[in-house]
Design goal:
This protein has about 500 residues and is an alpha/beta fold. It has 17 helices and 25 strands. A seven-stranded mixed beta sheet has the order 15-18-19-14-13-21-22, with helices on both faces. Strands 10-9-8-11-12-24 form a six-stranded mixed beta sheet, with helices on both faces. It binds nicotinamide-adenine-dinucleotide. Nicotinamide-adenine-dinucleotide (NAD) binds next to helix 9 and helix 10.
Length: about 500
């Protein structure tokens, strides 16, 4: 990987695909520019891959899964590899975090904090690599022995979004490899560099060739051929509901199984008995800390009518004090939006909210900073009604839609009035209410008096249009394993067409 000098001294970095342990240009040699969102300037290029590259990567993963060392490796040994990967990741956090922050504009301090957790996911799944036991089944036949065994699919396609490339990658790659699969990763065209840097890290510890491969480029040009490739047996996708639908349709045509981690319009619900200081921290962190570019962003705030005006005033005060700046600077509290198309989408969502009659009480406009870049003010809308676009459509940006409620039943009805169901937050001191809400909210994750937590042990995924399947926890291993039933005959078979003599 020839980018050490340009990362150290500046200048344009050039990234290539990583296929079968080798760095290679895209077939046809085309490239895409990568801009630094803090300045809008191009800092790197990536390979603009197509069907030939997708096919090479899928074949390399297939060969590694079926004939390479990975195919015959004992599960305990695979677990050792995952531990080594976790250690290597941990040792390279600083380099990886610098690259990811430069590429997608997330604040360096936040990226470092997220990356310091990621080795634990490799260690967790390392421990699960040799724990998936089959069963001996007591079928009613003394001449036959029946048991089940969990087996990997083979080559997996892992397609990821730009908001947290290495976290999203880890949640797919660690369980997929632990289960015995191999993987082709297609990162977002808006943030591919950290994924390629991580391949350098894993290559340097001697991970067998073909076990992990990366092809970069546009979704339609290389992502789609990858999921269509006959060597790909399983698909794991993180991204928008719209692209998730396309992928599910194509995968369905080929009857390939797919895991979908999609968008959200998650509600944070603040009751009159909540600890308001804690709730304010949770609301700010839920929607503004990553500029709302988090799948579980708490983008709808449902607040008891008696608290509404005071809570909104305090949130507005809090966001006007935040410092904009270079995501690499420790003092920066608001970094840029991750890419130009997303910056335009945020602006468009704000325009739609105003057209629909919502009232903007904080932000609502872009920010100009000395370094350039794509900055947007933390934005709060009140006067929102459930049918407005700002209450229904994911923005994936720093935009909060506030709606009052009168009682618990109305709060639950408003929260569940969404096509999506990724997460929900509940702020209350009433333990009975906490349990009732946790039970009734239609969301894959419910947080009570906290928000945005993640852990390797805890499954995460969506209800409704927020997705299919789960990442993390033991459940994530099942996504990458299929169950086989084995019948062993123990005696002579009866004649298939018995006659009176036989
Ligand atoms: P996106 O759907 O536009 O793209 C995601 C990935 O799919 C990219 O790598 C893209 O190149 C690829 N892609 C696009 N079209 C494709 C096609 N036809 N075939 C194959 N691949 C294709 O999403 P995005 O803008 O990168 O990310 C933002 C979205 O991701 C938001 O909706 C957010 O909620 C979601 N997200 C969800 C989670 C979760 O865990 N649920 C986590 C992070 C982000």
């Amino acid at each position: 990987m020839p980018n050490e000098a340009c990362l150290r001294e500046g200048g344009l970095c050039h990234y290539r695909n990583y296929i079968d342990g080798t760095w290679s240009e895209a077939d046809g040699g085309q490239r895409l520019d990568c801009a630094n969102p803090a300045s809008g300037k191009v800092w790197a290029t990536i390979a603009r891959s197509g069907p030939v590259d997708a096919s090479r990567a899928a074949r390399a993963a297939h060969v590694a899964a079926t004939t390479g060392p990975w195919a015959t490796m004992r599960p305990t040994e695979r677990g050792r590899w995952l531990r080594r990967m976790g250690e290597a990741f941990g040792a390279d956090i600083e380099r990886l975090a610098l690259v990811e922050s430069r590429d997608n504009g997330k604040r360096l301090s936040e990226v470092r904090a997220q990356f310091s957790d990621l080795p634990e996911y490799f260690h967790y799944f390392a421990g699960l690599a040799d724990k998936f036991e089959g069963r001996v089944l007591p079928i009613d036949r003394s001449d036959t022995f029946n048991y089940t065994v969990w087996q990997p699919y083979g080559a997996v396609a892992a397609i990821t979004a730009w908001n947290s490339p290495l976290a999203l990658l880890t949640w797919k790659v660690a369980p997929a490899l632990a289960a015995g699969n191999t993987v082709v990763i297609k990162p977002s065209e808006h943030a591919s560099a950290s994924t390629l840097e991580l391949m350098q890290t894993f290559g340097s510890i001697g991970l067998p060739h073909g076990v992990l491969n990366v092809v970069t480029g546009l979704g339609e040009e290389v992502g789609q051929p990858l999921i269509d490739d006959p060597h790909i047996q399983r698909i794991s996708f993180t991204g928008s509901v719209g692209v998730g639908r396309i992928i599910a349709t194509r995968a369905g045509e080929q009857l390939k199984r797919v895991t979908l981690e999609l968008g959200g319009k998650s509600a944070q619900i603040v009751f009159e008995d909540a600890d308001i200081e804690q709730a304010i921290r949770g609301i700010l962190s839920g929607i503004f800390v990553s500029n709302g570019q988090s799948c579980v962003a708490g983008s709808r705030l449902l607040v008891h009518a008696g608290l509404h005006d005071d809570l909104v005033r305090r949130l507005c005060e809090a966001v006007t004090e935040l410092r904009y700046g270079d995501p690499m600077e420790a003092a920066t509290q608001i970094g840029p939006i991750a890419n130009l198309p997303q910056f335009h989408r945020v602006q468009q969502a704000v325009d739609h909210a105003l057209e629909d009659g919502a009232r903007c009480v904080a932000g609502g406009t872009a920010v100009t900073t000395p370094g350039g870049g794509w900055y947007f003010k933390p934005t709060i809308f009140v006067g929102v009604t459930p049918n407005m676009r700002i209450a229904r459509e994911e923005v994936f940006g720093p935009v909060l839609a506030v709606m009052p409620f009168e009682d618990e039943a109305q709060a639950i009805a408003l929260a569940n009035d969404s096509d999506m169901g990724l997460a929900a937050g509940v702020w209350t001191q009433d333990i009975g209410r906490a349990f009732r809400l946790s039970n009734q909210l239609q969301a894959g994750t419910v947080y009570v008096n906290n928000y945005r937590g993640l852990a390797p042990q805890s499954p995460c995924g969506g209800f409704k249009q927020s997705g299919w399947g789960r990442e993390n926890g033991i459940e994530a291993m099942r996504e990458f394993l299929q169950l086989k039933s084995v019948w062993i005959g123990l005696g002579a078979l009866p004649h298939p067409y018995p006659t009176s003599e036989s």
